[in-house]
Structures are given as structure tokens and as C-alpha cells.
């Protein structure tokens, strides 16, 4: 019997925040307070909770946040105007547009209106390209959290076969590119994949990013695989069937307490990085 | 014994050009001639030949081209100025910066300075992101050529397992994303991949994009695999060992005469598409 390593996201998140607090203190000596602007359109209660949580976490570690609430009936053009103002506001270092926006708004256009320098949530198509080409953009926060867990626990991925299940613009696609840039061999699978369990069987590392509760079964896994579960379904249930996957794996993230808690800390990390970069740019000019 | 289908790139390219000639004639009735600007920095003879070939092919099908030759000692800033002028020139619909530029130039910065609307060679990081997210950008020409061959021959890729060997920004990465968007399961392998031949053995479709002559061996292939060889090594030699791969495959592109001839026709196709889009934008405003 193997004794799998439980990958503790709360510990990872704490170490990130400890590091950030130091950086934030350093910045304050220069009179700079990293600031995240969040935009919430409409009054979806789950989204409202997420945004509040993000903004509270900012304050807890000494950052500022500006919460912008827009009514349900906001048009795409009105939203674009708000984003443009924030792009130009030198006190704002990062911009987060809470997904999803009401369906009458062109969400992609709104995301892509965020200037690359402030796209700390990694949602722009340009940011995706620049992340893939390793040009210093901020990646999406959940993929970044997955990499952070890998690094914290020193998991060896170079040359290994990672199978990503899911291909969304904010999770499956970017995490695939990030694992590839770390020299993993990467397979991207999805709803149209034939014989998915056979594909997963090849994996040294499985990234579950499919958005369906208990989707990945232990019997699909190669003995000793690493399971990184980015799922977060109603009732705090992951995309992997934890019990059966645990038994087959060498290391696994639980849900809750795995990738989830690290995700918000990535948003803060990117905002601090953005504050540092934008301040340096001001000094240079 | 199987009887593999030889995928004839010259036939594919001809069908693309026939279609383009009609579109170009239509545009001429509106007084619009699609125009590609090519920039060559320095005097590498191979690059000079490529650029000349591209510009000649433009003229042959009734398009215009503007060839800009810059001296070896051109600085990044000077090159950026030239690109900016072309971005603003309404008579230019597409811009191609011939790779590679002299090593003292920041090539990535120069590529990314090309405006998305005129990036007909698909080299910008933004274009890569917008291609991946299917936002109507022009993909890189070799990946586009691979998809064109797939479409011309009606090869079934949905749900199938494609293994791409290589992960360059202009070939391996974009073709992976394009195959994924067509519902293939995609594995991206590379120089750090462990047990590459085992990985290739899983493939229904192999894309050879590694830049090493006769790299992919027939014995690596699953019986009946489709081999798409994007390699073009000195002496007109592909990345696949043609004889042994032919024997195992169900369909295969030769080198020369496979993906290569289709690639230039993709550049022309994107330029014509850009001319149509930019003219429509002018009419609408």
C-alpha cells in the first residue's frame, strides 16, 4: 500500500501570503500600496461573495481594494468605459472583472479591454499568448495556483506526462501551456476525447479541470499518479473522486483545501508584482 | 498491406489559390487590391529567397506586394518605426516580418508591434491567444496549412488522438491549439519528453514539427496513423522518415510537396481575408 502525500493548499497559500506581506511592507516604504480594482456587474449572490472575499483578503495582507458595483442593466460600452478609466488610473495596479457578467454583455470584449499590465487575473487573450510565450504576463489564477502547489512540494514534472482534463480559456488551456513550459509532456483531453480513461491511464500527473463532481475515478489512474484537482463543484466537491483516487495516487490535492485557497493568493501575488513593475516603470520614465 | 493516401499539398495549394483569385477579382470591382508588405532585415540569402517567393506569388494571383529591405545594422527602434508606419498605412492589409532578424534586434518586440488586424503571418503573442480562443485572428501559416490539408482531404480528427512533436511559438504550440479547437485530443511532446516513441505510438495523427531530418520512424507509429510532416530540412528532407512511415500510415504528406506549398497560400489567404475585413470596417465607419 502506498502512503499518498496530501497536498495542503492552505499551507501553500500561507507561505505565499507571508512572502507577499514582506513585499507589501517594502513597497509602503516607497509610499506605494498595491491596489486591486474589482468589478462586479449585476447581483448574482455567489459572484458577490467571491468579490467580497477577494477584496477582504487584500485588506488582510495590507493591500488596498476598490470595489466597483455596476447594475445588471449595464451595457458593454458602459463596462468598457469603466475598464478604460481603471486602465488609466495610476493608483490601480490590478483589475479583476468578476465572471460571469450578464449575458447581454460581450464578456470577451470586456476581458480583452483590460490592459495587459493590469490583467492580474490572466483573462485577456493577449495575456494567454504572452503567458504561453513566457513574456512575463500574469497567468490565470487557478493554473498559477496549480504550478504554485507543484513548486511548493517540489513535484518533479520535467519530462513527465501530464494529462489535463478540460480545455477552458481560464483553466485547461493555460495550465496546459504552463506545464508544457516546465517541460512536461502535455495531453489536453475533453468531452470529445475517445477512451478518456485510457488517456488518463498514461498520466504521471492528472489535472482535473472539467467542472463535474467526482468525475475522475481511481481506477482510471496509473499507480502512483499525482492528482491535482482544480474542480470546485456545489457542496465543496472536487472533479476527482477523492477516496478512490487517493488510494491509487502518490500525491493528491483535497477539495476543499487544495488548489482553491491558493487561487486567491495568486491574484494578490500578481497584483503585488504589477505594483512593483508599474512603480519601476514610473521611476524609469 | 495498406495503401496509404499520399496527401498532395500542391493540389491543396492550387485549390486555395483558385478560390482566392475569385475573391481578388471581386475586391477589384470595389477598387481594392489586397496588399502584403514584407520586411527583410539584413541580407541572409535564404531569407531573401523566401521573401521574394512570397512576393512573387502575391503578384501571380493578382495581389500587390511591397518589399521593404532594411540594412543588417537596423536597430529595434528603427524596425518598430517601420512597422508602425505599415500599421497605419491603409493601402497595406497584411504585414510579414521575415524571421530571423539579426540577433541584436528584439524579434519578439518587433513581431508583437504588428497590429492584430494585419498580422497575417500569425506571429504576435496576441494573435496566438486570439487564435486559441477562436476570436478570428489569423493563425500562423504552417499550422493553418496543416489544417487546410486536413480539411481538403476530409480527414477525421474529432475525438482522435493527435501527437504534436515540437512546441515552437509558430508551429507546435499553435497547431496544438488549432487541433484542440477541432475536438482532437492533443498531446504536445518535445525534446524533454520521456519515451517519445511510446507517446507517438498512441497517436491517430502525428504532426512532425521538430526540425530534424527523418526524426520520426515508421516503427514508432500505430498501424494506420496519419502523418503530417511540417519539417523542411536542408536537402528537402522532412521530419519523418518517409519510407518507413509511409508503410505504416494510412495517409501521409510527402516532403517536398506536402505542407510546404500550402503554407504560402495561407499567407495569401489571410491577406485577402484582412483586405476584406479592413474594407468592411472602412465602409461601416
From TrEMBL, chains A, B:
Mind telling me which SUPFAM superfamilies this protein's record contains?
Aminoacid dehydrogenase-like, N-terminal domain, NAD(P)-binding Rossmann-fold domains
Recorded GO cellular component terms are: cytosol
Q: Does the keyword Metal-binding apply?
A: no
Q: Which reaction does it catalyse?
A: (6R)-5,10-methylene-5,6,7,8-tetrahydrofolate + NADP(+) = (6R)-5,10-methenyltetrahydrofolate + NADPH; (6R)-5,10-methenyltetrahydrofolate + H2O = (6R)-10-formyltetrahydrofolate + H(+)
Q: What is this protein called?
A: Bifunctional protein FolD
- Its job: Catalyzes the oxidation of 5,10-methylenetetrahydrofolate to 5,10-methenyltetrahydrofolate and then the hydrolysis of 5,10-methenyltetrahydrofolate to 10-formyltetrahydrofolate.
**Stored CDD domains:** NAD_bind_m-THF_DH_Cyclohyd
Kindly state which keywords UniProt assigns to this record, in alphabetical order.
Amino-acid biosynthesis, Histidine biosynthesis, Hydrolase, Methionine biosynthesis, Multifunctional enzyme, NADP, One-carbon metabolism, Oxidoreductase, Purine biosynthesis
Spell out the family assignment given in the record's similarity comment: Belongs to the tetrahydrofolate dehydrogenase/cyclohydrolase family.
What pathway, per the record?
One-carbon metabolism; tetrahydrofolate interconversion
Among HAMAP family, the record links this protein to: THF_DHG_CYH (MF_01576)
Describe, as the record does, how this protein assembles with itself and its partners: Homodimer.
Enzyme Commission code(s) on record = 1.5.1.5, 3.5.4.9
* Molecular-function annotations in GO: methenyltetrahydrofolate cyclohydrolase activity; methylenetetrahydrofolate dehydrogenase (NADP+) activity
Give all residue intervals belonging to the Tetrahydrofolate dehydrogenase/cyclohydrolase NAD(P)-binding domain: 141-278
Q: Quick one: a GO biological-process term for this protein?
A: tetrahydrofolate interconversion
Q: Which residues form the Tetrahydrofolate dehydrogenase/cyclohydrolase catalytic domain?
A: 7-121
- Amino acids binding NADP(+): 166-168
Record's Gene3D superfamilies?
Leucine Dehydrogenase, chain A, domain 1 (3.40.50.10860), NAD(P)-binding Rossmann-like Domain (3.40.50.720)
The beginning of the lineage is: Bacteria, Bacillati, Bacillota, Bacilli, Bacillales
Amino acid at each position: 500500500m502506498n502512503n499518498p502525500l496530501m497536498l495542503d493548499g492552505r499551507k501553500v497559500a500561507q507561505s505565499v501570503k507571508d512572502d507577499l506581506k514582506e513585499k507589501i511592507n517594502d513597497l509602503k516604504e516607497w509610499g506605494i500600496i498595491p491596489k486591486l480594482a474589482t468589478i462586479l456587474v449585476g447581483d448574482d449572490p455567489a459572484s458577490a461573495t467571491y468579490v467580497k472575499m477577494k477584496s477582504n483578503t487584500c485588506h488582510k495582507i495590507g493591500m488596498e481594494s476598490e470595489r466597483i458595483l455596476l447594475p445588471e442593466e449595464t451595457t458593454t460600452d458602459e463596462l468598457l468605459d469603466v475598464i478604460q478609466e481603471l486602465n488609466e488610473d495610476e493608483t490601480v495596479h490590478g483589475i479583476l472583472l468578476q465572471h460571469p457578467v450578464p449575458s447581454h454583455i460581450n464578456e470577451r470584449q470586456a476581458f480583452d479591454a483590460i490592459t495587459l499590465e493590469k490583467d492580474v487575473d490572466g483573462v485577456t487573450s493577449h495575456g494567454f499568448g504572452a503567458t504561453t510565450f513566457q513574456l512575463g504576463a500574469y497567468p490565470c489564477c487557478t493554473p498559477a495556483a496549480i504550478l504554485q502547489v507543484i513548486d511548493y512540494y517540489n513535484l518533479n514534472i520535467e519530462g513527465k506526462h501530464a494529462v489535463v482534463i478540460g480545455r477552458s480559456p481560464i483553466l485547461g488551456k493555460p495550465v496546459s501551456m504552463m506545464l508544457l513550459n516546465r517541460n512536461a509532456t502535455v495531453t489536453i483531453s475533453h468531452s470529445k476525447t475517445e477512451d478518456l480513461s485510457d488517456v488518463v491511464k498514461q498520466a504521471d500527473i492528472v489535472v482535473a479541470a472539467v467542472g463535474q463532481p467526482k468525475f475522475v475515478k481511481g481506477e482510471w489512474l496509473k499507480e502512483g499518479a499525482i492528482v491535482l484537482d482544480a474542480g470546485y463543484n456545489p457542496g465543496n466537491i472536487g472533479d476527482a473522486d477523492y477516496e478512490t483516487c487517493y488510494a491509487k495516487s502518490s500525491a493528491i490535492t483535497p477539495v476543499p483545501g487544495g488548489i482553491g485557497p491558493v487561487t486567491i493568493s495568486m491574484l494578490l501575488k500578481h497584483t503585488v508584482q504589477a505594483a512593483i513593475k508599474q512603480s519601476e516603470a514610473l521611476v524609469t520614465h
